[in-house]
């Protein structure tokens, strides 16, 4: 077919709204698509449908009072958010925490990372048309982690477990046996996913070479987390700027090759394996001591500012805190990974079909709670 | 490289840069923002990642803080610009780092800082017809219920 | 556009020969059928949506109560579970979605945010203070931040109880 003919069969440009209520936008995201037939010519993302003004709220809450709000930023990885925030405040206060608290934090964060990746994989497969089965499998495994968290801190989703200077409770008796049992169980299940999804022909056809994100573009867009690593950049804050006890633990950083949707899925699956390894080691090395907090709840840091970032399941979560000497932060900025990860979407979808948007969005694993804050 | 070394490298080429004492951030005048960021990105310092843009409302001025990182060189720095009240505009960095596009839109939405030559300077988080810039200290909204402080 | 004209259930049933005795019985059967096949909308706003999905997944299995058919289109739904914080930017969308649902329709406000704004009640400029303030009538409120799946199931059972005891035969 020559070009003049192709021009003839071009259809009229067509504008379509996807979201904010759409099962595949993972929350309240609205995409404005300019279509030519089923081909996407242009894509504009409209965000802010879940803008809860967290940063304004932070200015009217004490440092301790803001911890529960961080739960609701990235609500499938609350432990990691809690941890990022309290670590930032601890850095502001120059506070050292006990070794046991550090290990408990690592265990909680890594378990939550697994839970978060399970949701990412489950919903991604669901978006690709593997209706319900992978999602139900992933949620079945996730419930085991939730049970562990339920026992540790008494909540299923918003944990509010970390405290400035430690954690809220020590680990309950018998929990290590439960976690060990879970690690063994989960290892076999990850192999199951490999068998069920990873090399499934339909799954490969839908996700391989779809949404290619080159290395340079990913860095230029400040994409982080598994999405960056899938593009072949070996960058993980747990290794590159180690915090807590990560430098004492042995684990690999899975890296993708092409930066397509399948790579992003695969990196997450591998990260589950690595997180299991981390939890296992941390449990083995768990020191004795008291991880709970022994200082008061009102903190008045001297006027200063800090920026601290941690590796969340979705990427680098940063807290920029400016204190003015009072019990309330003067300004608190949350640098959320999903915000930057989503910004790259319009670049990825141009020239693809509508069905591929769903695939790319699922593989980017964005979450509107922290995108909009 | 450590922050001080990076600062010295900037200082030799751009004498107008100075260092904030408490935080170690590099303060630059807003006129030389484009020059310095171009230098930082393309020089051997290789700052390939504009990580975060923050604004701080200090009543008499608005401070902009750019957090830059280099993934290849493993170092980072914070650039700061002081904008006097009434002149809250600065050059956009969207040409250099694409991540700046949304980050600058966010600062515009919440603080009202105008980014010159930005490709698409609209509100991003608040509705497009929203009035005012909520994170300014002077902002008030009729429907906000204030919780009494401790 | 909302569906405003409805055919009353009683009219349909009155055509069946047999008269008054059947009327009340069929009505009960009708209500029972209505209560046992509630189709919720796939509509997650924030944190509570994750618990809603968890309720729909294998462990809690909302299907046991006949409410497992999550539909993506409001035109195919009976019940709208408002799961999460309602923000000002989202107000119009929620009102429109509610209007698009066919009668009879029910609303469950899941979680503190959907009830009153919850922890976002104070000091925020962009959060709507509850579903009620949008003019959407709520049938069941489920408190919690977020409510556990058991709570959602209980709320659903309460809604079913409400439907079974409805006085108005037309609804």
Question: What this model shows, in words?
Answer:
Chain A is α+β, with helices and mostly antiparallel strands and 373 residues long. Chain A is built from 16 helices and eight strands. The longest helix of chain A is centred in the first third of the chain and has 29 residues, at 99-127. Chain A is globular. Chain B has helices spanning 3-13, 33-42, 100-111, and strands at residues 18-19, 26-27, 49-57, 61-70, 75-84, 89-91, 114-116. In chain B, the strands form two sheets. Chain B has a five-stranded mixed beta sheet. A two-stranded parallel ribbon of chain B has the order 6-7. Chain B starts with a helix and ends in a 34-residue tail after the last strand. The longest helix of chain C has 17 residues, at 20-36. Chain C has one domain: Rossmann fold. Chain C is 37% helix and 8% strand. Chain A binds chain B through residues 47-48, 51, 53, 55-56, 60, 62, 217, 219-222, 233, 235, 240, 298, 303-305, 307, 309, 316, 318, 320, 322, 327-328, 330-331, 333, 335, 339-340, 343-344, 347, 372-373, and chain B through 22-23, 48-52, 54, 56-57, 65, 67, 71, 74, 78, 97-99, 101-103, 106, 110, 123-127, 134-135, 146-147, 149-150.
Topology (SSEs and partners):
The complex is a heterotrimer of chains A (373), B (150) and C (171).
Chain A: H1 3-8, E1 13-18, E2 30-36, E3 39-46, H2 54-58, H3 67-71, H4 78-93, H5 99-127, H6 133-153, E4 162-163, E5 166-167, H7 175-198, H8 201-207, H9 215-220, H10 226-230, H11 237-240, H12 261-284, E6 304-312, E7 315-323, E8 329-335, H13 337-343, H14 345-349, H15 354-364, H16 368-372
Antiparallel strand pairs in A: 1-2, 2-3, 4-5, 6-7, 7-8
Chain B: H1 3-13, E1 18-19, E2 26-27, H2 33-42, E3 49-57, E4 61-70, E5 75-84, E6 89-91, H3 100-111, E7 114-116
Parallel strand pairs in B: 2-5, 6-7
Antiparallel strand pairs in B: 1-2, 3-4, 4-5
Chain C: H1 9-14, H2 20-36, H3 47-56, E1 79-83, H4 91-100, E2 106-110, H5 112-115, E3 140-142, H6 149-164
Parallel strand pairs in C: 1-2, 2-3
């Amino acid at each position: 077919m020559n070009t003049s003919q192709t021009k003839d069969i071009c259809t009229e440009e067509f504008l379509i709204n996807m979201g904010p209520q759409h099962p595949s936008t993972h929350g309240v995201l609205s995409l404005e698509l300019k279509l030519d037939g089923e081909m996407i010519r242009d894509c504009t993302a409209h965000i802010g449908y879940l803008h809860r003004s967290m940063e304004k709220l932070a200015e009217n809450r004490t440092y301790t009072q803001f911890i529960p709000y961080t739960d609701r930023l990235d609500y499938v990885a609350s432990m990691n958010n809690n941890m990022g925030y309290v670590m930032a405040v601890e850095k502001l206060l120059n506070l050292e925490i006990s070794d046991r608290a550090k290990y408990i934090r690592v265990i909680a964060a890594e378990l939550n990372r697994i839970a978060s990746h399970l949701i990412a994989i489950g919903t991604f497969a669901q978006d690709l048309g593997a209706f319900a089965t992978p999602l139900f499998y992933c949620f079945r495994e996730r419930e085991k982690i939730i049970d562990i968290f339920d026992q540790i801190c008494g909540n299923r989703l918003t944990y509010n477990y970390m405290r400035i200077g430690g954690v809220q409770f020590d680990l309950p008796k018998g929990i290590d046996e439960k976690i060990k049992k879970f690690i063994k169980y989960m290892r076999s299940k990850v192999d199951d996913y490999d068998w069920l999804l990873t090399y499934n022909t339909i799954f490969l056809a839908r996700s391989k070479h779809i949404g290619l994100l080159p290395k340079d573009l990913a860095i230029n867009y400040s994409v982080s987390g598994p999405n960056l690593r899938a593009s072949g950049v070996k960058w993980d804050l747990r290794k590159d700027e180690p915090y807590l006890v990560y430098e004492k633990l042995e684990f690999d950083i899975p890296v993708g090759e092409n930066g397509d949707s399948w790579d992003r899925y695969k990196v997450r699956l591998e990260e589950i394996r690595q997180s299991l390894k981390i939890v296992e080691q941390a449990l083995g090395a768990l020191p004795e001591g008291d991880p709970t907090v022994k200082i008061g709840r009102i903190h008045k840091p001297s006027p200063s500012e800090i920026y601290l970032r941690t590796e969340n399941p979705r990427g680098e979560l940063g807290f920029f805190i400016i204190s003015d000497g009072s019990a309330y932060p003067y300004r608190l900025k949350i640098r959320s990974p999903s915000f930057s990860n989503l910004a790259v979407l319009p670049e990825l979808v141009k020239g693809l079909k509508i069905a591929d948007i769903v695939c790319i969005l699922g593989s980017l694993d964005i979450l509107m709670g922290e995108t909009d804050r | 490289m450590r922050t001080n070394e990076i600062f010295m490298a900037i200082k030799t080429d751009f004498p107008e840069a100075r260092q904030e004492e408490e935080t170690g951030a590099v303060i630059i005048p807003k006129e030389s923002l484009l020059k310095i960021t171009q230098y930082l990105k393309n020089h051997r310092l290789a700052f390939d990642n504009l990580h975060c843009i923050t604004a701080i409302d200090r009543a008499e001025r608005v401070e902009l803080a750019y957090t830059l990182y280099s993934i290849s060189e493993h170092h980072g720095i914070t650039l700061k610009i002081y904008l006097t009240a009434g002149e809250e505009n600065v050059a956009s960095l969207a040409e250099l780092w694409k991540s700046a596009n949304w980050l600058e839109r966010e600062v515009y939405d919440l603080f009202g800082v105008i980014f010159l030559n930005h490709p698409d300077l609209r509100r991003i988080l608040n509705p497009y017809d929203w009035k005012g810039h909520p994170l300014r200290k002077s902002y008030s909204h009729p429907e906000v219920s204030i919780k009494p402080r401790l | 556009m909302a569906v405003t004209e409805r055919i009353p259930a009683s009219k349909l049933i009155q055509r069946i020969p047999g008269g008054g005795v059947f009327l009340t019985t069929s009505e009960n059967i009708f209500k029972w059928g209505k209560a046992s096949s509630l189709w919720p909308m796939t509509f997650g706003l924030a944190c509570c949506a994750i618990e809603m999905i968890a309720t729909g997944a294998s462990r809690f299995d909302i299907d046991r109560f006949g409410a497992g058919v999550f539909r993506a289109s409001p035109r195919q739904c009976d019940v709208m579970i408002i799961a999460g914080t309602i923000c000002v930017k989202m107000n119009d969308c929620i009102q429109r979605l509610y209007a698009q649902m066919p009668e009879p329709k029910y609303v469950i406000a899941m979680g503190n945010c959907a009830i009153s704004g919850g922890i976002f009640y104070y000091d925020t400029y962009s959060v709507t203070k509850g579903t009620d303030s949008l003019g959407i009538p709520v049938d069941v409120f489920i408190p919690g931040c977020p409510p556990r799946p058991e709570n959602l199931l209980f709320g659903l059972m309460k809604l079913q109880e409400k439907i079974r005891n409805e006085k108005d035969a037309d609804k």
